[in-house]
Batch of 4 targets.
Target 1
Amino acid sequence: MGFENDFEALQTAVFETEQRIKKLEKHKESVTKELEESKSDALIETLRRLERNLDDLHKKLEFLISERDSKNTKK
């Protein structure tokens, strides 16, 4: 990642990742409601992918926050 030494870029990346997580969580809610009404294989696959993507984004966010915090304490 090209922002290891740029605190503002880390802040921006944290914000963008948080926004993406919120968007995917809303989509997951919607798919989960649809799945309750219809056990579609396509919906099950969509939900599986959403969960995997959310897990990946949470890991990314954790990394970004730790990088940002480590840069912030060095200032």
Target 2
Amino acid sequence: MRIVSLLLMLSLAVPALAGKTLHVYILTGQSNSLGAIKGNPAAPERLRPAPERLRFWQANFGSYNRVTPPHIPHWEKVRPQRAAQEVMGPEYGFAQALEAANPWPGDDIALIKASRDGGGNTHWLPGGDAYTAVTNAVASAIAALPKDTYDAVRLEALLYLQGESNKGDEISAAPKRFAALLDNLRRDLPPLTGADASSLKAVLCEPATWHGRDLLHNGVTTRDGLKALADAREDIGWVPTRDQPKITHGDAMGVHYNGDAQIVIGRRLAAEALRLAKPE
């Protein structure tokens, strides 16, 4: 009886272990988010250390990303993907930086990527192919998690690298449309996934130029509109990209960043996402 009483006292004195949470990031956008590096991959030394712990679900879409046999999205390690050619967006550097920072010891981190190979922001309106791809990817990824692994799934931030292909009204509407995209995901993802999106933030990447020039509509640019939105909102961060190198062959558009640039952009995304998650 004394032993039973002692064990009962010890069990009451030791607090219950906290459940594990999965912290989820969502990456979407067009070709620089997809990573159309076209034969200009990152230097091997920049790929070390390879991400090992972050869960990665890639559900990229669009004609450039067709593969044979078709890619079936599944939970895996972050790695360069293969499409028509090697594809690596900012997810690799993002994963490296998040693993090094280890912001939630004892918890896990996941990145769900659903990026396409071009197109203006109309695709990210509700009912558009990009909006459907993103919401389906998040729902499928969370449904495929091992059962009873996590007590909670929390959507941390939307990582968005898009804007180079905006034309006409898409350019002037870019800030409003992105703000609506964030609101729509906060509304639509919880009932689809069971995840907590109440603190979902966003990080905007500066869209690249075409041979050093922005596309204009009525004197405004996508870049300036998105930067103004990030400056005005505490829940939206900003990552500069235009100091980074473009690919040197395999593309005549003058818009695509090379593999080394993608590593840097990914690390900047991670730093900005963590700043938003843990404001000083």
Target 3
Amino acid sequence: MPADYARLFTSGDQMPYVDATVYFGSEKSACLWRIMDKVVDQQNRQTGTSKALDDHEKRARIEVSLGVAEIRRLSITSLDDLRRFRFTNLQKEFFAFYLPTFAATDAVPVLNYRAVKEMRSQERVRKFLKAGVVGLQAMDHAWETRRASNRADIAKVLRSRGQPVARFKAGKGKHGTLLAYRELNKRVETALRHLAEGVGS
């Protein structure tokens, strides 16, 4: 079994629970993301009481914890540095959000190749539904790495059989198959700008 099996397929994925906290990274890593799905408020675990939120009140809370080395990399060593710091600079590395894209397999002219692409496309959809954009990006990277290592051997076999080497590549931008989630990124930019205003006052 390949070491990156969990990234290549979905059989080992577990979808996060509703009203749960998901962690990306470890407490010992340079940065740790903590995403909380808020569907209740005023929760008291001792009494077992809480207030269920209406759909328009539900929200997600995202926290990023930076280690000492990461803070020093950002040139923050004192409270004065923090007052001068432009929090919007954090967005690119820590608060950038993306939307997935999926291949239009109907446009692939070779029938047997189309079947393979369709199977991979369905697997990518399942990965996204189970593991989100982070999982999908990891899957895409794992497949691209695997394809790159095997491409030369596959082309050699096809040529020995007198078969053409098809090259169908999905359009990929700066972030692979992902597109910037502009509306959410704009809200994050506004929030970070207001945060800077609060610290500077």
Target 4
Amino acid sequence: MEYRYISDVKPKDLWLIAMIRTYRSLAGVINVVFTVAMIMLTIRFWGSSGAFIRTVLILASMLFPVFQPFAIYLRSIKQLETLPGRVELTFNDAGVHVSSEGKQEDIKWNKIANAIKQSNMIIVMSDSTHGYMLTNRILGDEKDEFYDFLCKKIRN
């Protein structure tokens, strides 16, 4: 069996991974608690505060639900500029063949650390911090079949 894909990572994909990672951690819990507390403070002190304090309360309430995701999106755009342009990935019984900008690399299955299936993509981890993202728009209907193939090869 062989699967061949061209990785097509968009800023939205990187943004989504960062947001999921943030809100599945302690930082995400703190973000939610802070936002709820700021909304409650804004409601409590709205009537008795001046224009400056109201502005500060509104901006503080918007810090994590608005400003942080926007900043992460801007960082994702910058991060995408550092990634190689066209990455072609071929998965077969021997391993993973990676081809990008005239460079080629073969990765044996025993060197693949993990495969992570998320609702919008599969990430093939080449080590504990680096991986190849394959989004649903690339995988199409083969997502579940491909993930089963990856799991079988990584376990062996």
